[in-house]
Design goal:
The complex is a heterodimer. Chain A is of the alpha+beta class. In chain A, 27% of the residues lie in helices and 35% in strands. Chain A contains 2 helices and 9 strands, in the order αβββββββββα. Chain A is flat, with a radius of gyration of 22 Å. Chain A starts with a helix and ends with a helix. Chain B is mainly α. Chain B is built from 18 helices and no strands. The two termini of chain B are 37 Å apart. The chains are: A alpha+beta, B mainly alpha.
Chain lengths: 185, 527
Amino acid sequence: MALKHAPLTLKLAIVALGMFGFGFALVPLYDVFCDLTGINGKTATTAATAEAAVIDLSREIVIEFIARPNKQMPWLFKPEVTRMKVHPGEIHIMNYLAENPTQRLIIGQAVPSVSPGQAALYFHKIECFCFTQQHLAGGENMLMPLQFYIDPALPSQFSTITLSYTLYDVTSAWEGTAASAQLGE
Amino acid sequence: MSAVVTDHEHEHHDHRPSGIKRWLYTTNHKDIGTMYLVFALIMFFIGGSMAMVIRAELFQPGLQFVEPNFFNQMTTVHGLIMVFGAVMPAFTGLANWMIPIMIGAPDMALPRMNNWSFWILPFAFLILLGSLFMPGGGPNFGWTFYAPLSTKFSGDSTALFVFSVHIMGISSIMGAINVIVTIFNMRAPGMTWMKMPMFVWTWLITAFLLIMVMPVLAGAVTMVLTDKYFATSFFDAAGGGDPVLFQHIFWFFGHPEVYIMILPAFGIVSSIVPTFARKRLFGYSSMVYATASIGLLSFLVWAHHMFTTGMPVFAELFFMYCTMLISVPTGVKVFNWVATMWRGAMTFEVPMMFALAFVVLFTIGGFSGLMLAITPADFQYHDTYFVVAHFHYVLVTGAVFSIIAAAYYWLPKWTGYMYDEKLGQWHFWCSLISVNLLFFPMHFVGLAGMPRRIPDYALQFADFNALISVGGFLFGASQLIFVWVLVKCARGGQKATARVWEGAEGLEWEIPSPAPYHTFDTPPEIK
C-alpha cells in the first residue's frame, strides 16, 4: 500500500526541499537583478577603472551628498560639501570627515545608496572609503576620500543625483572574525 | 512479507485503542481531522483572547491596560496564531475528514505521516506561547517579522519564534503532500478529475501552493535566525545585505499564503450554495480553471505589499496590474455562486446563512483589496487601519465564516445528530452584526490616517475605536454560542439522516450519519 505512494511522495518532498533552496537562491538572484538594473540605488562595491571619457560640457549635474551614522554608531560623520555641480565625465574628489569621539577603537563600514535608484549605474567610483572597513582609534579624526565621475551616458532626465552614506559600527563583527582567525592558527 | 502486512492490517481494523492512546496513535483520517478541528478551535479562542486585549487597550485613547511592548506581542502572536494555528489547521482538519470520503478513498494515502503532522503542531504552539513568558517577552515585531526589527531589535525569544515557525511549516508541508498523494492515487474508479467535488479541487491547488511557499518561509526564518545569532548579513546593510530583500522573500511566501487561506473557503462555499439552492453548481469547469489561475497568479503579485519601499515605477505598475488581474477569476467565482442561487429553491439554514454572508462580505474585502492594489492610493492606505479592515474582511468574514459554515454543514455527518438550528441562527446573526460593527468602521479610521500596530491613537479616532471595540467584544462573545452548539450537537439531539440536507449531492451523503470509523473499504461506484 505505502510503496504505491512512494514515488509521488518522494517527488513532492523534493519539490519542497527545492523550494527551501530557492528561498536562499533568491538572495544572490536579488543581488544580480539589482546589479543589472540598478533599481535599488546600490553603486558598485569595487573601484571603476578611470576611463579617459569625453567630458560632456553641455550639461551640469547637481550632486548632493548626505552622510549619517547609524543609530548605534558613535562617530561624527559628514561630507565636506553637501552639494556640487559636475559635468558628466569629469573626475572629482570629495572628502568626508569622520571623528571618533569615544575612547576606544571603532571600525566603520559605509554603505552607499543613490537616489534616484536608476542613476546608480552611472555613478562611477574610482576610489571610495566605502570599499573597505575604516579603523579609527578613540579621539582621532580623519578625512575619507571619494573619487568619482558621472557617466556621460547618464540619461537626460536626471539632473540631480543624491549620494547617501550610512555608516555602520562593525567592530564586534570584525573582532569576531579576528578571534576566529586566531583560533584557526 | 505481504502476508504479514495483511495480517497486521486485519488486526488494525478490529482493534482500536481507547482513551488518550486512541488519539495519540491514531492513523484514522476522521480522528486526525477531528483533532485538527478541535485544535483550531482552541487556537481560535487563544488568538481571539489576544484580540480582546488589543481591543480593550484601544477602547480609549491613551495607555490603559498594557504596556506598548506587550501590546506589540499581542498583535504579533494574535496574527501568527490565527494564521498558522486557527485557519490553516481548520482547513487541514476539514481536508482530512472530507477529502477521502469525497473521492471514495478508505483513508489518507500516508496515515502515519498524517498522525505526525498533527502531533507536532501542539508543540509548535506551546513553544510560541511559552515564549510570551520569557524575560523580555515573546515576539513583538508583527507577524510579518520584518528585518531589521526581527534581526536587530528583537528579544531573545526570537529563536523560539523561528523554531515554532519551522515546526508549523513542516506540519503544513507534510499535510499538503498527504493531500496531493491522496487525491492523485486514491480516487475511486470513475472519479475523474472533472468529477471531483470543488472542495477537493480547491484543496489540491492549495496543497501545491503550500509545498511551493512554506519552504520559502522556512528559509526566511532561518535567515533571520542566522542574521540574529550567527553574524550573517542576509538583511544587514552593514554587512552587504539588504533589508528590502527580506520583504521580497517574505511576501513571495506571504501572498500565496493568503490564497492558501481562501481557496479551501471557495471550495466550501461551492459545496454549500448548491445544496441549499437545490441546483447544481453553475459553471463547474470555470470554477476549476478560476481556482487554478488564482493559484498561478498568486506568485506574481507579492510586491504589492511593498509599494512604499521605493520600487521603480515599472515594477509598481506590473504588480498593480497583476493584482487587479486576480479579481477576474475571483469575480468568475462570485458570479457562479450568484448564478447557482438564481431561481434556485433556496432555504436558509445556518450553513447557507454563513455561506451567503461569505459571498457578500468576502466581496467587500475583495473590493477594498482592489483599492489597495492601486499604487498611488496605496501610499495613503499603507500601514493604516484600512489594511486591517481589508484583511479581516477576507480572513474573518471570508476564511473563518467559511470554516464555521463547513462545521455546521458537515456537523450532522460527523456527530450523527442535527445541531440546534435556533441556537445556530442566534450565532449567525450575533456574529454578522458584531463582525461588521468590528471591522467596517476600521475602513473609516484607516482612511483618516490611523496607523495600525500602535497602542495609542489621536483623539479624533476615539468614537470609532470605542465602537470597534464593542463590536470586537460582541463578536468574541458570539463565538461562545458556537461552542455551545458544538458541544450540544456532539452530545446528542435529533438523529441525522444519511443525506442530512435535502439538496445535498456527493459521496459523503451516501454513507450513514455519523460516518462509520472506516468508510469505502471497497471503492464506491461513481455515476
